[in-house]
Amino acid sequence: MTVISNNEHGARISGKSGHGPVVPRELLTIEEAVDLVVDRLSFKLVLTFIAVCCTIFNTSAATYITIFTGYIPYNEWKCVSEKCSDLEALAGSSNDFYSYDTMCKNDLVAGSDFEWTSKKLTFSMEWGFYCKNEAKLSLASSVIFLGSLIGLLFSTCLYDWIGRKKGAIFGSFLVLISLGASSVATSYSVLLVLRVISGFGLMVNYTGSYCWVLELAPTFLRNPVSGFFTLGWTVGVFMLIGFSKFINHWHYIYMAVAVINVLGLIVFFLLPLPASPRYSLIKGRKEEAMKTLQLLSQMSGSKVSLDKVDLIYEERNQSYLQQLKDFKAHPTMLKETLLGMTAWFIVSLISYSYQFGWSKIGNDLHSIYFFAAFGDGVAYSTCVLGCRLLGRKKATFFYFGVVIVMNLLAMLDVKFTDMWSLEHLVSIIGNIGSSSAFIMMYLYSGELAPTSHRGMILCLSSSCARVGSFVGPYVNLLYGVTDRRVPLALFAGLALMACVVVWFLPDTTGRSVPETPGDVEVLSGKKKEDEEDDGETNGVVANGLNGHIDNGIVVTVT
After folding, report:
1. What angle is formed at CA 47 by the lines to CA 41 and CA 53, rounded to 5 degrees?
2. For residue 432, which of 376, 388, 472, 483 has the smallest C-alpha distance?
3. How far apart are the C-alpha atoms of 272 and 52, rounded to whole Å?
4. Residue 528, helix vs strand vs coil
5. Pairing mode of beta strands 309-312, 25-29
6. CA angle 30, 34, 40 (to 5 degrees)
7. Which residues pair with 77 in a beta bridge?
8. What is the pLDDT of residues 306-323, one digit of tens each?
9. What burial letters (b/e) apply to 451-485, b meaning 16+ CB within 10 Å?
10. pTM over 0.85
11. Do residues 130 and 75 lie in contact, with contact meaning Cβ atoms separated by under 8 Å?
12. What is the pLDDT of residue 115?
């Protein structure tokens, strides 16, 4: 029999009773155990988190690569036909002649009426995607999110089958294959198929890596690590901007991004990166979890011994179908998941409209994307400070509020120089707000979801984000068919709707991360600890909430 009681300091103590003396052992939840062994930030631990993030550097590059490989230089061409020359003569010395309006409103044809003068060769120029065919570029940009949606739905099973770490590696391999094949693609249809495969792999990789790093981090590092993880996305964008600046052929840009993917994968195999101890416990592999905790202890330089520590956990024989049934049995988890999915859709639509729409706002593609990427870096860095000062919920409100105000200001016609206007400036600030809100929803959802369902909930939420991501680039087409204030008003209205959604979510600031659906009910205040339904625990105390209490003594039979 295992006897569990409280010591004089209130800590849970267990020990074996029988013919010999009781050997005291401290009982800890996995949350408490991680906080215990990682009580400081060390150089080895920093390297570990950097290594975990290595494969996400190429994720943003693979997502945004069509912005540069498919760019349509509407201001870089010359007339070669009499029709075009006559139009040029009528325009006189106007600087606006070489523009989208001149080319598209007069139905000028590449090769017959004009020739591209850009030093860059993109697939849009090579395959004739401009004016009426520009929607093909939007499809090439958006179709990656169809693959992401399929990948995320698939990965809800994958993460629980092979774990977060192996799932992330599998996704990264798929991205590598698709990027390598795209570098030699000779047709639009082949490129679309490869974009779907790339989207499938990159979201399996990205979401798996995020679950992995979040579950490795102690409470005091969870917010900084989340911000650092998303900062890797910005690093990838800067890499892509650099490649496209100095590489003139779109095939070679794909090849360069593939090389970055290879380097990230090498790190995974060179370093002994630990698996998630939370995932190990959910699968009932206690010894594996203890080994991971011991490794984390060594990395952080902690002198804590785990020899006299027992982990409190619930061994679950869970399946995809059982996880779905849990949503019905635990309505609070269902409500929070649905609200989170709605917020993810909105923030993703706004964010990707920005990311794929900068070419509609300015002509200097590399400069404006550089400042946009810099703004993303600022967003990811300030999220840590925002969470610390305002807490999770208020910080999310604040960032969505920034999006609302900046889009309203962008409606004003104020021009500073030929290249910069008020719309440019406030759009960059609005992009910072939407990127920050995106990060907050990642962190928010990860902390609301229990470990047993975190992979599924993050995948479902990110699937909704992929739908928003798919729609986002098409919203930018409104700039060509209606007043520019229409999409700006749409973004402001959507951000306001997101604020309403977040209003109904609980604040997770300073709160423990739930391990099971029952913990979600307890933490929300809908159910008391002694009311939680423990089900089949196989003699294991679940999160300190199960067992019967009699005069401060909890007894479970082993």
Report:
1. 110
2. 376
3. 11
4. coil
5. parallel
6. 165
7. 116
8. 777 777 766 555 566 777
9. bbbbbbbbbbbbbbbbbbbbbbbbbbebeeeeebe
10. no
11. no
12. 92
